[in-house]
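Q: what sequence does this backbone want?
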């Protein structure tokens, strides 16, 4: 799932500097623990301090997946290249 990044300006910010954030309801669907709730128990805001703490670990997990996929692809390419070379040699010897 991809999160929608939203841009907004805080009403109390006199300089009107744009902020960026995530849609709280979208985050809640993926991980309810990353959402703070109001007095009525309704989603109020994303707990960005928790999200930020999770990012390095999530990045490392995804990086490990990419490395595994690259290695698997490399093995398949080597295997295909070996098979193709063998077929070419066989075809050459038949001539």
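A:
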């Amino acid at each position: 799932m991809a999160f929608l990044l939203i841009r907004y300006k805080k009403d109390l910010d006199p300089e009107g500097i744009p902020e960026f954030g995530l849609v709280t309801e979208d985050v809640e669907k993926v991980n309810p623990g990353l959402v703070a709730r109001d007095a009525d128990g309704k989603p109020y805001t994303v707990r960005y301090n928790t999200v930020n703490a999770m990012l390095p670990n999530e990045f490392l997990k995804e990086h490990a997946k990419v490395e595994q996929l690259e290695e698997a692809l490399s093995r398949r390419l080597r295997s295909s290249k070996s098979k193709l070379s063998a077929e070419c040699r066989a075809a050459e010897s038949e001539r």
